Q: What sequence folds into this?
């Protein structure tokens, strides 16, 4: 959902979803669990039902469908993702909730499991520096064989 060179944090609600969204071949993978020091302000596209306007709801459906599409992993520049990149970028700058707090991410359904996936508007320095709202709770490395990647 972010254009090349734009860093954002992608996370999932569970280990399987994280692996299925990122692992496309056997190998070693790192899994980390995080907690947050505060509630993050996230726009929930997976269950966003509060706006009655049918045009908006239709647009939301199209955007969520596009966001949830699997990404083909190759060296090509995928221009078919430009609309979702624009959509995501709009919310990552100067969008606020009804209490004037900045939107810090989007929740959407995984393209593979349907479980929750998130893009959080934190680049690498914001994620790693003191004052970051993220706390590492658990870290492990997995060595996945071909049969463990079947879904």
A:
């Amino acid at each position: 959902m972010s254009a090349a060179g734009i860093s954002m944090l992608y996370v999932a609600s569970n280990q399987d979803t994280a692996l299925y969204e990122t692992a496309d071949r056997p190998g070693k993978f790192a899994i980390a669990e995080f907690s947050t020091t505060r509630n993050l302000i996230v726009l929930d596209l997976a269950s966003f039902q509060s706006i009655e306007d049918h045009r908006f709801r239709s647009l939301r459906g199209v955007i969520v469908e596009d966001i949830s599409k699997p990404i083909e992993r190759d060296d090509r520049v995928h221009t078919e993702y430009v609309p979702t990149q624009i959509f995501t970028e709009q919310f990552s700058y100067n969008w606020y909730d009804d209490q004037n707090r900045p939107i810090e991410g989007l929740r959407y359904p995984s393209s593979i499991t349907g479980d929750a996936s998130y893009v959080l508007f934190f680049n690498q320095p914001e994620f790693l520096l003191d004052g970051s709202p993220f706390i590492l709770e658990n870290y492990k490395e997995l060595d996945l064989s071909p049969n463990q990647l079947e879904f």
Observations:
- The chain has a mean pLDDT of 78.
- The first strand starts at residue 9 and ends at 12.
- Strands lie at 9-12, 27-36, 42-44, 105-109, 116-120, 134-144.
- The longest helix spans residues 54-67.
